[in-house]
Specification:
184 residues, Immunoglobulin-like, 2 domains, elongated
């Protein structure tokens, strides 16, 4: 008889508390929000659903204002929020809701929160993290000084022995290309 009573109470407990048990299986397994960023930042909210759970949506908030939503059918929605400019795929994948913040500024700093909600019960879990905008440190370079300071090295394997021809080292070429990309 005690075994049946215990089983009865276990089943009764499960029936009464089914909605609380369901939320325990819904989890945000990984929230990625960089602590600091200057130009752009990748944000990602990865979640796991329990057995027989159906996703309703995943929402992103900045300081309490919703700015992005991934729906269960894969579609996404964007909402205007001050300081948030973003790029995201037109479709989201199951288990993740990534987005790419661009054009960061002081207004982009704040708390970014991910909320994952279930269908039918509408139970949800949240995780949040702060992002701080950091001013990029740009050191002005005078192009004439930059070109004048380029050192040339001799590459013996490239030329015949005794040749006086020289060319810029590959690292300096890369620096020059990087300079042109940054300052144009």
């Amino acid at each position: 008889m005690p075994c049946r009573v215990t089983t009865f109470y276990c089943i009764l407990y499960l029936v009464i508390n089914w909605q609380y048990l369901a939320v325990l299986s819904l989890t945000i397994s990984n929230l990625f929000v960089p602590r600091e960023a200057s130009h752009e930042a990748l944000l990602d909210c990865r979640y796991s659903l329990g057995l027989n759970e159906t996703l309703y949506d995943v929402k992103w908030y900045k300081d309490g204002s919703e700015f992005f939503r991934c729906k269960a059918n894969g579609s996404v929605q964007q909402f205007p929020v001050d300081g948030v400019k973003l790029y995201a795929s037109e479709l989201s994948q199951r288990g993740t809701c990534p987005l790419f913040l661009t054009g960061l500024s002081e207004k982009s700093s704040g708390e970014y929160l991910c909320e994952v909600s279930l269908d039918f019960t509408f139970q949800s879990v949240t995780r949040a993290s702060k992002l701080n905008f950091v001013h990029p440190s740009i050191v002005p370079i005078n192009i004439k000084d930059f070109i004048k300071d380029i050192k040339y090295e001799k590459n013996e394997s490239q030329y015949s022995h005794g040749s006086t021809e020289r060319y810029p080292s590959s690292i300096l070429i890369c620096l020059h290309i990087l300079f042109l990309i940054v300052y144009e």
